[in-house]
Design goal:
CATH architecture of the largest domain: 3-Layer(aba) Sandwich
Oligomer: single chain
CATH superfamily of the largest domain: Vaccinia Virus protein VP39
Largest sheet: 10 strands, mixed
Bound molecules: S-adenosylmethionine
Helix content: 25-40%
Length: about 500
């Protein structure tokens, strides 16, 4: 290869993974039929009105690779989803090394990378030209995943990294630093085709508006009329209402020409202070401003935090059912609002308690979600989505989706009556179907060791448990753990 692109190298990069019965993975060849074979989906239930076609909202019980593979390659689903999905949000296990109640979060680093690589490649195929993928991670793997995604989506399609304040209390017993944020890595399928929506204005963003001169156009805020960059038409003197003469001082220029300044004055869009004798500012009317461009720092006040997310799931069920790592509905609402419009398809193949699909449904988006563990599907995902489809979602109906800021304003917009839904005419919008992935038709090949049960003390095995005699690589552990940077055209 002569591209000279930087690539991340890791042990097992040329291999593939298969899910094992215990929820772990085993290494297999990329030609293994269990990897290449597209799995069939068997219907196991439905909720609400469904069309019976692939366009119905789908809850898939099974591995995310198999679910994505079916959505991309199975002709029935491919026609609906390949190249047509507007948003993929995933919240995979972060690889923190912990064992949560409902899933294990301690994969070998190279297993995690391979697992993500294979799913991200399929996600790329799903995305519409104007679509985007949002990957939710913490510090354990974010940096590696960013490099991986550069490779898969192209560096030019990197949109940004959102930092979400997941906790708002300090852990004073943390050994070094008390971590209070997660990351959302955002990539476009094609950045030139991506148009993200603005977010609603908030009380906080609008608090500086006032109307001391009773302007009939309503509240406004001051905006600077000068700029620090040299502007050819920006050097002139202006005369205030009481004959005072003003011009920008030092290395500053007017940010508009004299003609524009005069037009603003003519339309009563200048503010010379309460006395009419201070340096002029421009009046920016609240009524004329659109939404806000989203920033990359999302606070718990705006989009909730981990505690709020747990409370939401607990409200839905009895207290004996507590999911370890749900995300707040307001966080998903913001992602979905920015990246999609009503009727668009939202996909999340690490469903957990089903937050993404639940919020997507309430926002009139179509959805597909997949979860590996049957216990999680039956305890959380399916019952939650059934409640949402039935409009019986007490957690969300008691509390507005936009978090505390919206709660303070008393607004509640998420639970629209069905008749007002833009998709109300489509029965596929209303119901959902539950499907399970049929087992591979291939015989199980007893071969590789599951990464999670690697015996590192075994003398003739490498770090992933492969017998050294048959392994195609012989790198040492630190190199394997960290990955190495290579240029593809270097030997
Ligand atoms: C961090 S949780 C997702 C939480 C979710 N965002 C929510 O709000 O509830 C990750 C989920 O991914 C599931 N999971 C792990 N590996 C998977 C795989 N290979 N395929 C599908 N789901 C998987 C886990 O069982 C777990 O429920």
């Amino acid at each position: 290869m002569t591209s000279g692109r930087l690539t991340l190298s890791w042990v097992g990069r040329d291999e593939a993974l298969r899910n094992t019965a215990d929820g772990g993975y085993e290494w297999v060849s990329r030609q293994d039929p269990r990897v290449t074979e597209v799995r069939l989906l068997l219907e196991t239930g439905k909720a609400g009105d469904v069309t019976g076609t692939a366009a119905d909202n789908l809850l898939i019980h099974g591995d995310s690779y198999d679910a994505l593979h079916a959505l991309v390659r199975n002709p029935e689903y491919g026609n609906h989803y390949r190249g047509k999905v507007k948003l993929v949000y995933i919240d995979p296990p972060f690889n923190t090394g912990q064992a949560f109640q409902h899933y294990d979060d301690a994969l070998e680093h190279s297993v995690w990378l391979t697992m993500m690589r294979d799913r991200l490649l399929l996600i790329r195929d799903l995305l519409a030209p104007g679509g985007s993928v949002w990957v939710h991670l913490d510090d354990a793997e974010m940096a590696y995943c960013r490099v991986l995604m550069d490779e898969i989506f192209g560096r030019g399609n990197f949109v940004g990294t959102v930092v979400w304040q997941k906790i708002h209390a300090r852990n004073n017993s943390a050994q070094h630093l008390s971590s209070v944020h997660d990351y959302l890595l955002v990539y476009a399928r094609s950045k030139s085709d991506l148009v993200l929506n603005k977010i609603d204005r908030t009380e906080l963003s609008d608090q500086e508006f006032w109307n001391p001169d009773n302007d009939p156009r309503g509240p406004w805020r001051r905006s600077d009329l000068t700029a620090s960059h040299a502007y050819e038409d920006g050097r002139y003197e202006v005369v205030g209402p009481y004959g005072d003469v003003f011009s920008p001082r030092g290395n500053r220029w007017w940010s508009c020409s004299r003609e524009t300044f005069d037009a603003l004055r003519e339309d009563n869009r200048l503010w010379w202070g309460k006395t009419g004798r201070t340096f002029p500012f421009r009046k920016r009317f609240q009524s004329e401003l659109g939404g806000l461009v989203p920033t990359t720092f999302w606070t718990h006040d705006e989009v909730g935090d981990n505690r709020q997310a747990k409370a939401e799931v607990t409200k839905l069920f009895d207290r004996s059912r507590i999911f370890s790592t749900p995300k707040p509905e307001a966080l998903l609402k913001r992602v979905i609002q920015i990246a999609t419009d009503p009727g668009d398809v939202v996909v999340d193949v690490f469903a957990g308690s089903g937050t993404t699909a639940a919020v997507a449904h309430k926002m009139d988006r179509r959805w597909v979600t997949a979860e590996l563990l049957e216990e999680t599907v039956e305890t959380f995902t399916r019952p939650r989505l059934e409640k949402v489809v039935a409009g019986d979602d007490p957690g969300a109906s008691r509390r507005p989706l936009d978090g505390k800021a919206e709660a303070a304003s008393g607004a509640s917009r998420h639970r629209r009556p069905r008749s007002r839904s833009p998709m109300a005419a489509s029965s596929s919008r209303i119901g959902s179907r539950a499907k399970t992935l049929l087992p591979s038709s291939q015989p199980s090949w007893a071969s590789c060791t599951t990464a999670q049960t690697v015996d590192r003390s075994a003398a003739r095995r490498d770090v992933l448990g492969w017998p050294l005699s048959t392994a195609s690589w012989t790198r040492s552990w630190p190199e394997a753990l960290l990955g190495i940077w290579t240029r593809e055209n270097e030997q």
